[in-house]
Amino acid sequence: MERKLIRFTAIFTCAFSLFACAAVFFLPALERGVETFGARILRNRQEREERYALLEQMSGLEIMDYNTQKAKEEAQEGTQESEQIGFTQQMRLELPEGVKGGDVSIREDYMEKQIEIWIPDADKYYIYDYPMMGKSDGIEDLDYTSGDGGGTVVLTMSNVAVPESSYDETYLYLDFVSPREAYDHVVVIDAGHGGNAPGATSGTYYEKDITLAIVQKIKELFDAAGDESLCVYYTRLADENPDFDKRIGIANEAGADLFLSVHINSLSGNTSVEGTEVLYDELAEDTAFDTREFAQICLEEEVAALRSKDMGLVEGNWTYVIRNAQMPAALVEVGFMNNPDELEKMLDDGYQQKAAQGIYNAVMRSLAEQEKAKE
Fold first, then answer.
1. For helices 291-306 and 349-374, what crossing angle results, to 10°?
2. What pLDDT does residue 79 have?
3. Quick one: the chain helix, strand, coil %, rounded to 5?
4. 1-to-6, 7, 10, 12, 92 alpha-carbon distances in Å
5. Would you tell me which of 16, 178, 192, 193 could form a disulfide with 208, CB atoms 3.0–4.6 Å apart?
6. Segment 29-41, tens digit of pLDDT
7. How many CA atoms lie within 13 A of 259 on its CB side?
8. Which residue, among 157, 156, 176, has the nearest Cα to 165 in the 3D structure?
9. Alpha carbons 317 and 300: distance in angstroms, whole number
10. What percent of the chain is predicted at pLDDT more than 70?
11. How sure is the predictor about 75, in pLDDT bands with cuts at 50, 70 and 90?
């Protein structure tokens, strides 16, 4: 027993001696390694803070341009693979780890000429840690905010633009094209008045509410049709009052085929007047399919749908949106609010649906006539 204990003690003493010798030999190198690793962490943290300090002085658009230029310079110096900046799309956004391209939400606010890109799991440092790159052509401003589980990139465009997106495992790619490039046909529908501009009134009833109700039903019809070759823009879908420049501006900038404004008539002192009339630009240049032809189709289809009295076409160059339209434009006066019987009809949901159907029919028929005129 004593012999075993002596042998164990000797082995342990030898092992401990060897370990002590090795420690003496390797400890300086180990200490240098720890120091180097710590210095690298400190340096990376310092570089990150310096980068933040630099980028915080820039606008969102300047940050994108800076990232793009720096990547090009690094590619030329050989410190970065050239394919990393060789994408052909206008803009590239890096996705946070674990986020897929299909998780990103893109919304177009065409009235404000803005495109909102919501990226899940993007925190307040996303714009600094995930360099977005691209060309700023046609982009007036880039803003970024975070919250509610993600971050939102808001692009303000110089013109109405349609975002086209694609993605791979790492990046979301974006192109911005004109509505005419994205769709075969573009139509703008305007619900008259809104917000602090009630339009014609009768007691507690306002023109702005009736026109909005009709246009919302028009949208339902176009949405249900599901024609992806046709883009329909609406100047308002809520109780808002876009100014006249915005209403007709969206149509002109988008290169719309047709502009149609929905209104409700009123004639003071005559409660028996009734029927549907349509305004057009009598001073517009004659073309293969012009504003008068469009207005005539609107009148025919609306009268047929409502079985209302045909009040004919009315010269409307005095109306701002009609006069400034760069495409065939018509303003439909569905009926007269000052006629109690006609007002009661226009407040009815079923009658509003008929009015919407008449306008939908008019737009589709007019687009077909336009195509024939081009042949």
1. 150
2. 59
3. 45, 25, 30
4. 9, 10, 14, 17, 77
5. 193
6. 444 444 443 444 4
7. 29
8. 176
9. 21
10. 85
11. confident
